[in-house]
Amino acid sequence: MRPGDRWTLAGGRWSRGGGDGAFTVTDPATGDPVGEVPVGTAVDVAAAVAAATRAAPGWAATAPAERGAALHAAARAIEEHADELAALVTAEMGKPAGDALGGVEAGIGTLRQYAELGPLHGGRSLQGGRSAADFMTREPLGIIAVITPWNDPVAIACGLIGAAVVTGNTVVHKPSERTPHTGALLTELIAGRLPAGVVDMVSGDGTTGEALAGHPDLDAVAHVGSTGAGRRIAALTAGTGAKALLENGGADPLIVDAGVDPGWAAGQAATGCFANAGQICTSVERIYVHESVSKEFVTALAARANALRTGPGRDPSTELGPLVDERHRTQVHEQVEKAVADGARLRAGGRIPEGPGSFYPATVLDGCTDHMAVMAEETFGPVAPVRAVGSFEEALAAANRSRYGLAATVLTRDMAHAQHAWRTLKAGTVKINAVFGGAPGGAATPRRDSGQGFGYGPELLDEMTAVKVVHLQTDVP
């Protein structure tokens, strides 16, 4: 684990930071303590922001190719410590070892992508009269707070920090209080390949995050996390004038059309609902299946849920690890219990196991209705709530009756239905016949309560910069 005096980074100098407050991070598989972490104070936040402010002019003036080279160096450093980072992810939030390493590798790939794209990122020119021209150039926003989540702490942080740094911004990173050891090591590896102050860090809980997001000297706050936290950040930035980039909660639907092989569809649903114990922003949160295949689909999905090997993430045979903590497990289980009380049928899982850790079984609920919280809210657990529908149109209408708009998936053999679906669904990402996947450079902007602004892809470089329009008149009398 990281040394106890390396929780705040300001201008290249590490310190313990924090006042009298501290919290303990526990291993969700065993309940054993991972380490104690100080709660960063407003003084720590101010020091980190001040360091980023001092470094900003020099970094903005650094040649784009040099910034890209520094990001490549950071990617190499992370690659050299990939196993250590993955082990920290598993220890802090329970992700199975292979998935944890995959998240680290995804972060490395993202840094390398931005290292190449950053130097090519530019504006455009407009021809005026014969003696005049306009051009639009992109400049760094300035000081960006990057507040990252626990469910994929390396990949997401690499994306946001990488895009911010390569476009000439300086960063203050606040990792989740559930994965602070991972965040501290990652920040150390990135910041160590950059000039002092370009990447800084504060550790802490929600009070630390609020102090950072509301700091008056920030130019932007980039946040991936819950809708509640995103709303609070939006309110804070509305008061300071900082830009808010938010990817928040979702209740992503999966539509299973008539004519689809129910066994194959169940495999897709199992991946979408149970990967990372359902703790992915774009996990499948509700399923609408055509009544002609619903019985076979639910039976196959329940069989897959029951067959998953549950255990600690460090066991290479584990397919379903624990939830991040017992508090979160309680919230997931309460949604399941309420759905059953309201008439849903439990087809698999749904019971808290005995023993240590915050494990929760892969759970399948049949006969759900849209008013149930397990369908309407973000469960963020290994739960597959299913509702049978009489038509494809009914499924589309139900999928759109949500205040979220992050992603949606459609499984269909009818390409006319596929075309109609992606045009109709109110989501930033629509996936046809695959719950996960997509091109490495893909990006989408979440809608409604799921957030605002592009995440990932070349478009994130646009979000991290501001456009300046210059009119150049050449004929001076």
TrEMBL record:
Regions that span the bilayer: none
Keyword Oxidoreductase in record: yes
Keyword Oxidoreductase (UniProt): yes
Disordered, as annotated region: 1-22
Domain Aldehyde dehydrogenase: 21-470
Domain of life (superkingdom): Bacteria
Keywords, comma-separated and alphabetical: Oxidoreductase
A single GO molecular function term of this UniProt record: oxidoreductase activity, acting on the aldehyde or oxo group of donors, NAD or NADP as acceptor
Family of this protein: Belongs to the aldehyde dehydrogenase family.
Record's protein name: Aldehyde dehydrogenase
Organism listed in the record: Actinomadura verrucosospora
